[in-house]
Backbone:
Protein backbone atom coordinates (compact mmCIF):
# COMPACT_ATOMS: atom_id res chain seq x y z
CA UNK A 1 0.00 0.00 0.00
CA UNK A 2 1.34 3.43 -0.86
CA UNK A 3 0.35 7.06 -0.52
CA UNK A 4 -1.41 8.79 -3.39
CA UNK A 5 0.71 10.91 -5.70
CA UNK A 6 0.96 14.53 -4.58
CA UNK A 7 1.33 17.78 -6.48
CA UNK A 8 4.78 18.92 -7.62
CA UNK A 9 6.90 19.57 -4.56
CA UNK A 10 10.46 20.19 -3.32
CA UNK A 11 12.17 17.77 -0.95
CA UNK A 12 13.60 19.77 1.98
CA UNK A 13 14.25 17.42 4.88
CA UNK A 14 14.60 13.73 5.64
CA UNK A 15 14.34 12.18 9.08
CA UNK A 16 15.31 8.53 9.33
CA UNK A 17 14.60 6.43 12.36
CA UNK A 18 15.76 2.84 12.48
CA UNK A 19 15.82 0.27 15.23
CA UNK A 20 17.56 -3.09 15.31
CA UNK A 21 17.36 -5.89 17.86
CA UNK A 22 20.24 -8.25 18.60
CA UNK A 23 20.29 -11.36 20.77
CA UNK A 24 23.61 -11.44 22.58
CA UNK A 25 25.56 -14.57 23.48
CA UNK A 26 25.21 -13.73 27.20
CA UNK A 27 21.41 -14.11 27.09
CA UNK A 28 20.65 -10.39 26.97
CA UNK A 29 19.29 -8.34 24.07
CA UNK A 30 20.59 -5.08 22.57
CA UNK A 31 18.00 -2.80 21.03
CA UNK A 32 19.72 -0.08 19.00
CA UNK A 33 17.87 3.02 17.85
CA UNK A 34 19.34 5.49 15.37
CA UNK A 35 17.98 8.82 14.15
CA UNK A 36 19.27 11.25 11.53
CA UNK A 37 17.96 14.56 10.23
CA UNK A 38 19.35 15.66 6.88
CA UNK A 39 18.37 18.92 5.21
CA UNK A 40 18.57 19.51 1.47
CA UNK A 41 19.82 23.05 2.03
CA UNK A 42 22.72 24.66 3.87
CA UNK A 43 22.15 25.81 7.46
CA UNK A 44 24.39 28.80 8.19
CA UNK A 45 26.70 28.95 11.18
CA UNK A 46 25.10 29.28 14.57
CA UNK A 47 26.70 31.10 17.50
CA UNK A 48 29.08 28.17 17.98
CA UNK A 49 30.26 28.47 14.39
CA UNK A 50 28.85 25.21 13.00
CA UNK A 51 27.59 25.34 9.43
CA UNK A 52 25.75 22.27 8.18
CA UNK A 53 26.02 21.73 4.44
CA UNK A 54 23.14 20.38 2.38
CA UNK A 55 23.06 16.59 2.62
CA UNK A 56 25.09 16.44 5.86
CA UNK A 57 23.45 15.20 9.06
CA UNK A 58 22.04 17.98 11.20
CA UNK A 59 21.29 15.36 13.85
CA UNK A 60 22.90 11.91 14.03
CA UNK A 61 22.01 10.24 17.33
CA UNK A 62 21.87 6.72 18.66
CA UNK A 63 20.53 5.02 21.76
CA UNK A 64 21.01 1.42 22.90
CA UNK A 65 19.17 -0.36 25.66
CA UNK A 66 20.31 -3.78 26.85
CA UNK A 67 17.46 -5.85 28.27
CA UNK A 68 16.69 -9.34 29.47
CA UNK A 69 13.75 -11.44 28.27
CA UNK A 70 11.58 -9.96 31.02
CA UNK A 71 12.29 -6.51 29.51
CA UNK A 72 14.36 -5.25 32.45
CA UNK A 73 16.87 -2.64 31.27
CA UNK A 74 20.42 -3.55 32.31
CA UNK A 75 22.42 -0.93 30.38
CA UNK A 76 21.80 2.23 28.38
CA UNK A 77 24.24 3.95 26.02
CA UNK A 78 23.54 7.15 24.10
CA UNK A 79 25.68 8.92 21.50
CA UNK A 80 25.47 12.01 19.34
CA UNK A 81 27.71 12.12 16.27
CA UNK A 82 26.12 15.27 14.85
CA UNK A 83 24.20 18.00 16.67
CA UNK A 84 23.50 21.65 15.91
CA UNK A 85 25.12 22.75 19.19
CA UNK A 86 28.18 21.43 20.98
CA UNK A 87 26.44 21.27 24.34
CA UNK A 88 23.81 18.79 23.06
CA UNK A 89 26.02 15.77 23.69
CA UNK A 90 26.49 16.65 27.37
CA UNK A 91 23.11 15.02 28.15
CA UNK A 92 23.88 11.50 26.89
CA UNK A 93 24.84 10.09 30.32
CA UNK A 94 21.46 11.20 31.72
CA UNK A 95 19.84 8.31 29.85
CA UNK A 96 21.54 5.84 32.20
CA UNK A 97 18.72 6.65 34.65
CA UNK A 98 16.62 4.18 32.63
CA UNK A 99 18.80 1.31 33.89
CA UNK A 100 16.76 -0.82 36.29
CA UNK A 101 13.43 0.18 34.75
CA UNK A 102 11.26 -2.35 32.90
CA UNK A 103 9.60 -1.94 29.51
CA UNK A 104 5.87 -2.42 29.90
CA UNK A 105 2.71 -0.53 30.83
CA UNK A 106 3.58 2.90 32.22
CA UNK A 107 7.21 2.79 31.07
CA UNK A 108 6.88 5.70 28.62
CA UNK A 109 5.38 7.89 31.36
CA UNK A 110 8.22 6.92 33.70
CA UNK A 111 10.82 7.71 31.02
CA UNK A 112 9.13 11.07 30.40
CA UNK A 113 9.22 11.84 34.13
CA UNK A 114 12.92 10.95 34.30
CA UNK A 115 14.07 12.55 31.04
CA UNK A 116 11.42 15.05 29.96
CA UNK A 117 12.10 18.72 29.36
CA UNK A 118 15.56 19.97 30.33
CA UNK A 119 16.47 16.61 31.94
CA UNK A 120 16.89 14.92 28.54
CA UNK A 121 17.02 15.38 24.78
CA UNK A 122 13.90 15.67 22.65
CA UNK A 123 15.34 13.54 19.86
CA UNK A 124 16.75 10.75 22.03
CA UNK A 125 13.45 10.73 23.94
CA UNK A 126 11.64 10.27 20.61
CA UNK A 127 13.70 7.12 20.01
CA UNK A 128 12.41 5.47 23.19
CA UNK A 129 9.01 4.53 21.75
CA UNK A 130 10.26 2.73 18.61
CA UNK A 131 13.03 1.10 20.67
CA UNK A 132 10.44 -0.32 23.08
CA UNK A 133 8.26 -1.52 20.20
CA UNK A 134 11.29 -3.12 18.53
CA UNK A 135 12.10 -4.97 21.76
CA UNK A 136 8.60 -6.41 21.93
CA UNK A 137 8.60 -7.34 18.23
CA UNK A 138 11.97 -9.11 18.56
CA UNK A 139 11.45 -10.96 21.82
CA UNK A 140 7.71 -11.74 21.89
CA UNK A 141 7.75 -14.55 19.29
CA UNK A 142 10.58 -16.26 21.19
CA UNK A 143 8.87 -16.22 24.59
CA UNK A 144 7.55 -19.33 26.22
CA UNK A 145 3.77 -19.76 26.23
CA UNK A 146 3.26 -18.41 29.75
CA UNK A 147 5.14 -15.18 28.99
CA UNK A 148 3.34 -14.82 25.64
CA UNK A 149 -0.04 -15.07 27.39
CA UNK A 150 1.08 -12.48 29.96
CA UNK A 151 2.31 -10.11 27.23
CA UNK A 152 -0.90 -10.56 25.25
CA UNK A 153 -2.90 -9.54 28.31
CA UNK A 154 -0.84 -6.33 28.48
CA UNK A 155 -1.58 -5.62 24.80
CA UNK A 156 -5.36 -5.96 25.20
CA UNK A 157 -7.33 -2.91 24.05
CA UNK A 158 -4.23 -1.01 22.91
CA UNK A 159 -5.51 -0.91 19.31
CA UNK A 160 -8.45 -2.26 17.29
CA UNK A 161 -6.71 -5.55 16.44
CA UNK A 162 -5.95 -6.20 20.12
CA UNK A 163 -9.52 -5.44 21.22
CA UNK A 164 -10.78 -8.12 23.61
CA UNK A 165 -13.57 -8.71 21.10
CA UNK A 166 -11.39 -9.02 17.98
CA UNK A 167 -11.09 -12.10 15.83
CA UNK A 168 -7.32 -12.15 16.47
CA UNK A 169 -7.77 -12.38 20.24
CA UNK A 170 -10.55 -14.95 19.87
CA UNK A 171 -8.38 -17.18 17.67
CA UNK A 172 -4.96 -16.88 19.31
CA UNK A 173 -5.81 -15.99 22.93
CA UNK A 174 -9.28 -17.42 23.57
CA UNK A 175 -8.96 -17.13 27.36
CA UNK A 176 -8.70 -13.34 26.95
CA UNK A 177 -11.59 -13.01 24.51
CA UNK A 178 -14.91 -11.34 25.40
CA UNK A 179 -17.78 -10.70 23.03
CA UNK A 180 -18.29 -7.08 21.99
CA UNK A 181 -21.70 -6.84 23.65
CA UNK A 182 -20.17 -7.79 27.03
CA UNK A 183 -17.57 -4.99 27.00
CA UNK A 184 -18.12 -1.34 27.89
CA UNK A 185 -15.35 0.60 26.14
CA UNK A 186 -16.92 3.92 27.18
CA UNK A 187 -16.06 3.11 30.78
CA UNK A 188 -12.42 2.59 29.72
CA UNK A 189 -12.35 5.96 27.92
CA UNK A 190 -13.52 7.92 30.96
CA UNK A 191 -11.14 6.29 33.44
Residues:
Amino acid sequence: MSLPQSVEREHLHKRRVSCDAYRRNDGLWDIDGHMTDVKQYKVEANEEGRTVEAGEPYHDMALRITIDKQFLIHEVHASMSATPFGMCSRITDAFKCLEGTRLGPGWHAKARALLGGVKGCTHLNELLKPIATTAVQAIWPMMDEEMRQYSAALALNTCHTWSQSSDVVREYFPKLYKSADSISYEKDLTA
